[in-house]
Amino acid sequence: ATGTNIKTFFEGSWHDADVPIMRAADHGAWLGTTVFDGARYVDGLAPDLMAHCERVVASARALMLHPAQTPQEIHDIVWDGVKRYPDGTPVYIRPMFWGIDGGALGILPAETPAGFCVSLEEIPMADPNKTVRLTTTQFRRPVLADNVCNAKAGCLYPNNARMLAEAMSKGYDNALVADAMGNVAESASANVFMVRDGTVYTPIPNGTFLPGITRKRHIDLLRADGHQVVETVLTFDDFRAADEVFLTGNLNKVTPVSEFDGTHYQHGAVAKRAYELYWDWARTTA
Ligand code: PMP
Which residues, given as ranges, of the chain have pLDDT below 50? Predict the structure, then answer.
């Protein structure tokens, strides 16, 4: 859908939903002014959907775009779309805004409403018992003075792609990524938690990495469940000394980590409990 109140559903593979390159995706495609978000629809539930709709609008503004759709309008478009799937289909929801060229091929996007669409795609949830192996990467998260780290912007992701490619070339699934100071920030695609002596720790947001919506939800749920959760500066050595490590993100919610560069972890009690707490909360509130 582009423009306020225009809703066009394209049913088919999203690869086939053509966008005229010099009209709709111009500034976004040439100069990287795209923002997106990701959310889930599983068993009739879309946990924290409104927070994801709010974030994609905030991300657009951070890139000086002019989003015409409100979070509530995006939320409604998503519900109209997901209801078209047969019950029980696991759907991945991706709203997106992109910059429109102002007519002079300039660096600034036009002050007209940004391009907008939502992609819905059937993507199964990963098995919650499937673990991943992490390694280090030479590539770091930028700071706000380098790039728009306060947005979920497409232009940040080629850097994450090279983190992931480097980790995979070493035979691992993902990277544990440093911030500009060399402390642990997140993985290339999700936030990270560690457990030591029963206390849960996660890097404190410092403007360099995405303070995830799923991360915040898990902090609140674990605290309400009686766990001590500390947001603080964490080093790679802290992760080497951890009893348990797990990732959080909207795609698969909680992903247990089995190894960081030769240090092995159990699929621990906290990650299992976090996954249960999340879906219990979603069933009663989302
Ligand atoms: N960090 C990065 C780099 C991500 O791509 C994601 C997934 N959006 C996350 C963290 C997790 O954020 P959220 O829980 O809001 O999906």
Answer: 1-6
Residue nearest to atom 12 of ligand 1 (CA): 212
pLDDT of residue 236: 98
Pocket flag, ligand 1, residue 214 (CB < 6 Å): yes
Q: Which residues have CB under 8 Å from 94's CB, separation 6+? A: 36, 37, 38, 39, 118, 119, 120, 121
Q: Is 187 in the pocket of ligand 1 (CB under 6 A)?
A: no
The verdict on the CB of residue 250 being under 6 Å from ligand 1 is yes
Please tell me the predicted confidence (pLDDT) of residue 3. 39
Look at residue 102 in the predicted model and tell me its pLDDT: 82
Instruction: Domain ranges for the chain, please list them.
Output: 14-122, 132-285
Q: Is the pTM of this model over 0.90?
A: yes
Domain 132-285 class? alpha beta
CATH number (3.30.499.10, 3.40.50.1240, 3.30.470.10, 3.40.50.10190) of 14-122 reads 3.30.470.10
What is the ipTM metric for this complex? 0.99
